[in-house]
Structure prediction request, 391 residues.
Amino acid sequence: MRTTVGIIGAGPAGLLLARLLHRAGIDSVVLEARDRAYVEARQRAGILEQGTVDVLRECGAGARMDREGLRHDGIELRFDRRRHRVDFPELTGGKSVMVYAQTEVVKDLIALHTDEGGPLLFEAKALAVEDPDSEHPRVRYVHEGVEQTLECDYVVGCDGFWGVAREAVPRELSRVFERTYPFGWLGVLADVPPSNDELVYARHDRGFALLSMRSPEVSRLYLQVPDGTDPDEWSDEEIWDELERRFETADGWSLKRGPVTSKSVTPMRSFVHEPMRHGRLFLAGDAAHIVPPTGAKGLNLAVSDVVTFARGLVRLRETGSADRLDAYSETCLRRVWQAERFSYAMTTTLHRAPDATAFDDRLQLARLERIATARSAATDLAENYTGLPFG
Ligand code: RFL
Ligand code: PHB
Prediction:
């Protein structure tokens, strides 16, 4: 098979890229290792930045999001049994975020692409990207038990952290920047209306907790747990009891309980691979970088990467200038490192490290106090949370 852009991975990055290229009249083939049901059910992100919302609308993938998504104008920080609201539009000149699950974005993009777009092969596992620095890179893959080759003008590795695309960058040119954290998130979905209208990020001496939601009927909750925790160690009742302790306020706020329908543990890491481009191979989304989920940046970074690639390729086609495409790695990395900085700051301000001292605790409270009392500190949070401009 031959195509202009070979896309590895049908997560948000790969699917949105295929959509953007289709709208620009550029053909692509998407190879996805897993089956459609698996990809559509994978529980992950919940928050879309303003820029992500705008891109989904512009490419005709925003209709259901606009009907069912929940626009949020702020978040609540909870610490020392106090509640502090950060108002996004007021601090950013009108920006907000959308609560609309990654599973739903993925379902919408798959449905559109299946109706209108080019080939999207499920259960097609890429084995390797070959000759990335030639004019015609290739992807070797297995589909229906048969090994095949996809010949491309460009390959975009949207295959997530565990994918194969990154391996095609020669070791001597690769640099990896990484940090792991000695804790993870135990995440649950529960059939109960969210106990708060907006997300609650709670710092507590027992550890971090987050209240989020999927709809007016379904809550999404997270608890900081030690690294390597097995979700089955926690009964539903223990989870609710612990959430209640960490969210407790002095003003009698109460947490609604309901049936837990899913439970899983996510490890936390920060990771950046530089460069994000080698020859005609481009890395996008989690294939190139990971952020801890505390800043809600991962999916949104995947979106800004593929928008940058698509704009670069369209410019090359329309004007003959490869300047934007050539600047892909630098353009994306500037935004990636701002998201790394923000996610790290949110993570270390809100989580309790196993070796934290009383000094560390006081520092965290001082940082939160600063956000609660200084407009400049609150503005920095609001600008980063709602999303910095795309490159
Ligand atoms: P994905 O979603 O991992 O998709 C990669 C796809 O590639 C496929 N694949 C292959 N296909 C073919 N051949 C191979 N060899 C392949 N190897 C892999 C995989 O099957 C998969 O379908 O990466 P992508 O598209 O870059 O998207 C990134 C996002 O999924 C990720 O950054 C976010 O989910 C992170 N994240 C959040 N991001 C936000 O912006 N806001 C949030 O609120 C937010 N919350 C979260 C999160 C991630 C979480 N977890 C579970 C890691 C909350 C959690 C709990
Ligand atoms: C989620 O709803 O899954 C979610 C929300 C905010 C985050 C991370 C995850 O920071």
The longest helix spans residues 328-350. Residues 8-14, 31-34, 39, 44-47, 102, 125-126, 158-160, 162-164, 185, 187, 266, 285-286, 293, 296-300, 302 surround RFL (ligand 1) (CB under 6 Å). The two ends are 33 Å apart (CA to CA). The longest strand covers residues 175-190.
